[in-house]
Amino acid sequence: MTEEQFPQALSIAGSDSGGGAGMQADLKTIQSRHVFAATVLVAITAQNTLGVQQSLALPTAMIDAQFASLAADLQIRACKTGMLADVATVKAVVNNLKRYDFGPLTVDPVMIAKGGAPLLTEDAIAVVRDELLPLATLVTPNLPEAEKLSGLTITDQAAMRTAAKRLQALGAQNVIVKGGHLTHADSANDYVLLADGSDFWLPARRVDTVRTHGTGDTLSACITAELAKGRSLPSAIRTGKAYVEKAITDGILVGHGHGPLNHWAYPEDRDED
Ligand SMILES: Nc1ncnc2c1ncn2[C@@H]1O[C@H](COP(=O)(O)OP(=O)(O)O)[C@@H](O)[C@H]1O
Ligand SMILES: Cc1ncc(COP(=O)(O)O)c(N)n1
Predict the structure, then answer these.
(1) Residue 104: CB atoms within 10 Å
(2) What is the reported pLDDT for 185?
(3) Using one digit for the tens of pLDDT, what is the confidence trace for 104-129?
(4) Tens of pLDDT along 19-68?
(5) Can you give the pLDDT at residue 135?
(6) Which of 49, 54, 218, 237 could in theory staple to 255 by disulfide, Cβ–Cβ 3.0 to 4.6 A?
(7) Which pLDDT band, with edges at 50, 70 and 90, does 184 fall under?
(8) In whole angstroms, what is the distance from residue 133 CA to residue 123 CA?
(9) Helix (H) or strand (E) holding 86
(10) What sequence ranges are listed for the domain Pyridoxamine kinase/Phosphomethylpyrimidine kinase (predicted)?
(11) Which ligand 2 atom is the nearest neighbour of the CA of 115?
(12) 77: helix, strand or coil
């Protein structure tokens, strides 16, 4: 007999000791959406709002063990990846995602922290592109990440659309190209291309702030939480965008650099259709 379980989501990511990005942002976001959050930790960073001071990838056997533990007990309904450190880590995560069904996969192809520190080695980018993207229900690159994965230069909204098509051709079913890095614009519009070929823009006003540490993690974690509840992908995406916009707009002051977001800002009983 199987009992109906509470919605459970999984973050496969690196730890940010500063608490603003990475696994910590994922946990805070998923929790605030009333979904139970489980974790596969793949790397540890010594990090704060000023930058990344040190970084350590965990042994792949430990990654395998965490996946096996979850598969043996929990009922993960949706999962996401964040920082994946290096080639060995990406390959271990890919192998485990092929082995276990943890529901729709959102790939946030994290490469470089806001302060400029690399969170993925250069040689691992091709492995993400060739082996992880084909497993993705959704991929959510920022502009530099979309450029690296697509090989295109992206300086305007037309190029964002072209890049999304290219990423779909590489195997990701659905794509969000995030406009947060289009800093010459006074908007922060994201472009969404869905599996059926339909598309739409997520419009947002650009908030003039340096407190944007963990924006990408927060967006993808919120989408993952909504998918774990069984929401449709377009609805999950709209809720994710509204959640991150509110978390940036109603900022909190923590640290002295690229500060974290306010994960309490978006009303917990609201979602977008
Ligand atoms: N200054 C800003 N004002 C409003 N929205 C922003 C701002 N910066 C980023 N965003 C939004 O936050 C989300 C994450 O985007 P981005 O910062 O591009 O990703 P990443 O954190 O992966 O670099 C996107 O929805 C983006 O539009
Ligand atoms: C462990 C970890 N994972 C992800 C990010 C990306 O977040 P951001 O691009 O907002 O700095 C980060 N800084 N640290």
Answers:
(1) 19
(2) 82
(3) 999 999 999 988 899 999 999 999 99
(4) 999 999 999 999 999 999 999 999 999 999 999 999 999 999 999 999 99
(5) 98
(6) 49
(7) confident
(8) 15
(9) none
(10) 16-262
(11) 11
(12) strand
Note down the domain range covering 181: 8-249
Domain total in the chain? 1
Looking at the domain assignment, is residue 268 inside a domain?
no
In single-letter form, the type of residue at position 55 comes to S
Q: How far is CA 60 from CA 73, 107, 115, in A?
A: 21, 19, 27
The ipTM of this complex is 0.98
Which single residue is written with the structure tokens 């040689």?
A: 123
Residues with CB under 6 A from ligand 1: 142, 178-181, 188, 190, 204, 206-207, 209, 212, 215-216, 219, 241, 244-245, 248
Any atom of ligand 2 within 6 Å of the Cβ of 82: yes
CB atoms inside a 10 Å sphere around CB 186: 9
Ligand 2 atom closest to the Cα of residue 213 is 10
Two structure tokens written together for 193: 């291309």
Whose CA is closest to 115, among 23, 3, 16?
Answer: 16
In a domain, 262, yes or no: no
